[in-house]
Amino acid sequence: MKKDVNRINKFRLYFVLSITLLAFIIIIVRLYTLQIIDHKYYYKKKLQQSKSVVEVSPERGAIFDRNGRVLALTADSFSVYLINKHKKNSFEELEKLKKVVFFSSSDFRKIRERISKGKRFIWIKRKTDETVLSRITRLNLKNVGYIIEKKRYYPNDTLACHVLGLVNIDNKGLEGVERYFDSTLSGVPGKIIIKRDARRKVFEEVVLQKPEKGEDLYLTIDKVIQYITEKELEKAVTENKARWGTAIIMNSQTGEILAMASYPSYNPNNPTSITKFNRRNRAIEENYTPGSTFKIVTLASAFEANIIRKGKLYNCGNGVFKYNGIEIRDHARFGALTPKEILAKSSNICSAKIAHRMRRAYFYKMIKKFHLGRKTGIELPGEESGILRRLTLWTDISSFYLGFGYEISVTPIQILEVANIIATGGYYIKPTIIERKPYSVRRERVISSRTANILKEFMKEVVISGTGKLARLEDYPVSGKTGTAELLIEGKYSKDRHVASFVGFVPADNPKLTAVVVIYDPMGDKYYGGEVAAPVFSRIMRETLTYLNILPKKKKNIIIVRKRSSNEYTS
Amino acid sequence: MQRLRDSQKNLFIFIVILITITIFAIFSIWHKLGVVKASYRLHELQVRKKRLQEKIKRLEIRKEKLLNLKRVDEIAKNQLKMRKVTPEDIYIVVEE
To answer: How many CA atoms within 13 Å lie on the side-chain side of A30?
Structure first.
């Protein structure tokens, strides 16, 4: 009996063992099939389902002013879309969205058209902010979703817009330093693997290639000086009913641009409102006739060639000079003038005569030496080179006209450089908009220091007793030159439309700042450079010198005590 | 009798092996689950970190917008009725 029990037990045992073994064998065979024979197939399928490689766009570098204050920054924004499954539902949801999102009538019409056409994926609002998104999510709409996209922010709105430029919807630079340094600012995209579980929930992100953030850019622009310049420029353009205006402030000794403003300006945060006219950076993209400001080049060239002497009198005639069918006019009958007076009173006749006394080839060489007719190479896109006719194209009367700044076109930054050559004692310093530390200044000798000092003194006289009196500052000596040129309209110089300008530097004896102001086509009562542009120069410089704490020479050894009042401020 | 004892011994060994394998399997699954849970947590924290970084950036933008010089100028002039310092407001004291 006991033997039978044992046998039964043994049978059971072997039975269980065999079943278990069989089960194991089946599992192992199945595992072998899945893991080894069909490995590639399932591995691929698994990867498709649980892993996805996503390209990560790098963060665009920020742009700062010379003191580290933010000018442009990239942050996340939210792009809202609609999945158009049923037209009726989509229209209903769009109506609800209309109550919380601001749509322009054209945008709203376009979205409606897309729904009607049966497009499946429709953008509702690209790159909107968190507040709008929260309003949308509160609506709890079934077919509305959003994705996160990087957006460029310009917190100062219009400030330095022409220098900064702007980016398109894909964050590619379109204008200004955004365009010039696009590759530097953009960075390198990276790749990540996103691992998801069966519910498509992300549980791990593995970095395959780390995205490299774009480099930050430090400009030489000073936010405060830029603001002062823009404010005064806007005022001048508006008051004088001008078409546009531009002003540049530069550090005389290093060539660093502290402010570069053009008006009308634009808000890069709102690209749809920008017109082609407003987008132009007039400081570097606009060629204009320099008029009398060019007399600096004429007189400097004449002094370099020893054609004129400082104290000698030159006959400027009775206000009209006729030569070979041309007529040159002065705004008064000057008679005999010294070179200093020629510049101070801005005699066209004497400047033309002096220019004509120089050999053409020499004068041409000197104009080229002043870096006119070529780009300055500033780190901004779209720079114009000005128009300087080749020597072979000069006529008999070319040097006459060139003597007082006609038959040539320059950009405002070029004329700024001309004045700066005088300010630096005869050296050309390339202008720059990018802060480089340590900064090495490359100087190129253009004229002798003797000539530069003579011109510096002459330009001082322009502001003391000449055409540029309104550029005067109470405590600082100013050197400068006014310019009033007739506008070239359809190949002819207009008698009643002008471009007014002023270029100069302060303090005249030890220049720290060089600046140019150009007001194009002022249609108000005034149109002379000395009346329209010189006061702008004076106002900008007064505030800038105070801001930079550049004390007047005679006040170096004094303490300035301000009467304290509760409501005083400086910008 | 000896054979029965042998087979019992074999059974015991088999069961021990089975239990060991099961324990290892459970441990391995438990460990894996722990890793997965930690991954979820890590990912959540990474997302949170990113959000906070973005929040900082947005606050920075907001701060810069509030510091907009045009705005400050207007507030100073129009709301606080401040005015600019003129040369008449300044005493000049000669340093000894």
So the answer is: 6
Q: How do the residues of chain A divide into helix, strand and coil, expressed in percent and rounded to 5?
A: 40, 25, 35
Tell me the shortest Cα–Cα distance from A340 to chain B, in angstroms.
32
Q: What is the pLDDT of residue A503?
A: 97
Cα–Cα distance measured from residue B64 to residue B70, given in angstroms and rounded to the nearest whole number: 12
Query: B64 vs A73: CB contact, 8 Å cut-off?
Result: yes
Pick from A227, A474, A561: CB nearest B93 = A561
Beta strands, E only, A96-199: 121-128, 144-153, 190-196
pLDDT in tens, A93-120: 998 888 888 888 888 899 999 999 888 8
Please report which confidence band the pLDDT of residue B10 belongs to, taking 50, 70 and 90 as the band edges.
confident
Q: Name every residue in A having a CB less than 8 A away from some CB of B.
A: 6, 10, 13, 17, 69-70, 73, 75-76, 130, 153, 155-157, 159, 195, 197, 201-205, 223-224, 227, 231, 474, 555, 557-563, 565, 567-571
With CB atoms and an 8 Å threshold, state whether A560 touches B39: no
pLDDT block averages, 10 residues each, chain A of length 571: 75 87 91 88 82 86 94 91 88 88 86 90 88 88 88 94 94 95 93 82 83 94 96 96 97 95 94 90 95 96 94 89 87 90 94 94 96 95 95 91 94 97 96 81 91 96 95 92 91 89 95 97 94 96 90 61 52 40
User: Does residue B58 sit at the A interface (CB-CB below 8 Å)?
Assistant: yes
Q: Is residue A541 within 8 Å of A515, Cβ to Cβ?
A: yes
Q: How many angstroms away from the CA of B95 is the closest CA of chain A?
A: 5
Asked if B91's CB is within 8 angstroms of A561's CB, the reply is: yes
Q: What is the distance between the alpha carbons of residues A79 and A81, in angstroms, rounded to a whole number?
A: 7
Q: What is the number of other CB atoms lying within 10 angstroms of the CB of residue A9?
A: 13
CB atoms B43 and A17 under 8 Å: no
- A559 contacts on B by Cβ (under 8 Å): 92-95
> Which of A292, A346, A398, A409 is an active site residue?
A292
Cα–Cα distance, A490 to A58 (Å, whole number): 49
Question: What angle in degrees, to the nearest 10, is found between the helix axes of A295-304 and A360-369?
Answer: 120
A346 is catalytic: no
Q: Which residues of chain B make contact with A75, given a CB cutoff of 8 A?
A: 54, 57-58, 61
What DSSP letter does each residue of A463-480 carry, written as one string?
Answer: HHTSTTGGG--SSS--EE
pLDDT band at B8 (very low <50, low <70, confident <90, very high): confident
pTM: 0.83
pLDDT at A319: 87
For residues A158 and A271, is the Cβ–Cβ distance under 8 A?
no
> Complex ipTM, two decimals?
0.74
Closest CA to A498 of A510, A489, A511, A509: A489
Q: What is the pLDDT, as a whole number, of residue A570?
A: 47
Compute φ and ψ for A382, nearest 5 degrees: 80, 20
Tally: H helices and E strands in chain B: 2, 2
Taking contacts as CB-CB distances below 8 angstroms, the residues of chain B near A202 are 43
Q: What angle do CA A432, A539, A69 make, to 5 degrees?
A: 45
